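Entry 0007
Protein: Glycerate dehydrogenase
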Amino acid sequence: MGERPVAVLAMRDDLVGQIFPGPVLARLTDLVDCDPAAIFTDAGAPPPALAAARILITGWESPQLDAAVLTAAPGVRLVVHAAGSVKQLTTPELFAAGVTVSSAVAVNARPVAEFTVASIVLATRRVFRYAADYRAGISRHGYPVGEDTGLYGLTVGLVGASQIGRLVLAMLADHGVELLVYDPFLTPGQAAELGATAVDLDTLCRRSDVVTVHAPELPETYRMIDERRLGLLRDGAVLVNTARGALVDTEALAARCATGRLDAVLDVTDPEPLPVGHPLLGLPNVLITPHLAGTRGRELRRFGEFVVSEVHRWLSGEPLLGRVNPDALSHSA
Ligand SMILES: NC(=O)c1ccc[n+]([C@@H]2O[C@H](COP(=O)([O-])OP(=O)(O)OC[C@H]3O[C@@H](n4cnc5c(N)ncnc54)[C@H](O)[C@@H]3O)[C@@H](O)[C@H]2O)c1
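Output (structure tokens):
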């Protein structure tokens, strides 16, 4: 295997061991020459191996792949990103040079979708309110009837048929819910194939018991869930945001949650983090988490397994699973 291509890792160095634990690293180094200690993290101090690299394996905190990097790594033909979005990583120069880029965005979508579905289940059971009462010494044991609880029979509206959104749709398919979706790039036929009905955003807000946000942060999505649209939601509706805080008007949402009219689960906020003492942090009907829905901990290994599989596919001439289409980046996360 003397002709194995050289691959260089470009990511935060303390992640390497978790993304490539021993057995995964062994599978990678069966395919390529890769020194896990020679990591490219500082554009001003590239490791010598970069000059011979054909493959860059990037991740969180990789240097941006601009013209200077291409000059330092003239032989690079493949970039495999062991993380989600490549928007901050890639440049027009990289694509113009004909470099193939693959991203583990679909791998990163899974934990976010799992978190979203878990949140929808718990929020529609009003678990956060009941747990807060319990902590406060208020017993609500027993079998209350006629309450606005439970997911079965509700309408769930997804904003953005993204990779995460599509997984959420698939996971909700057998929960006995009606599914609506708003995505300007999705046809009604495509929505139907996903098991959902395509509607405009106002209709989605009016008809949904749960609104879950999965669109990217773009100028046109800034505060798309604004004061007026929050006003379209029914009393008792739940808003779940695992996308980006800027898509929702935080203060308008906080005001509605404070009156108890809406419940919310927010993994992302604007600003992020929320300042200490922000009203949302103290509400019993709101769960705020510190942007933790994406890949973490032992899930990082999935990124490494994805890299090995993509490198193997590329070396075998097979189509890549995570190939990035540069033309789609403008409306992607
Ligand atoms: N909480 C976390 O840890 C975490 C982790 C990963 C991703 N995210 C966020 O989740 C969201 C979805 O990520 P993804 O990788 O699944 O996205 P993606 O790139 O796969 O899809 C984006 C989707 O949004 C649609 N879209 C574009 N403009 C729109 C608009 N104006 N209104 C509605 N839809 C629009 C596109 O057609 C596409 O279907 C993003 O905001 C991303 O930043 C959060």
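Curator remark: The first helix runs from residue 16 to 19. The chain has twelve helices and eleven strands.
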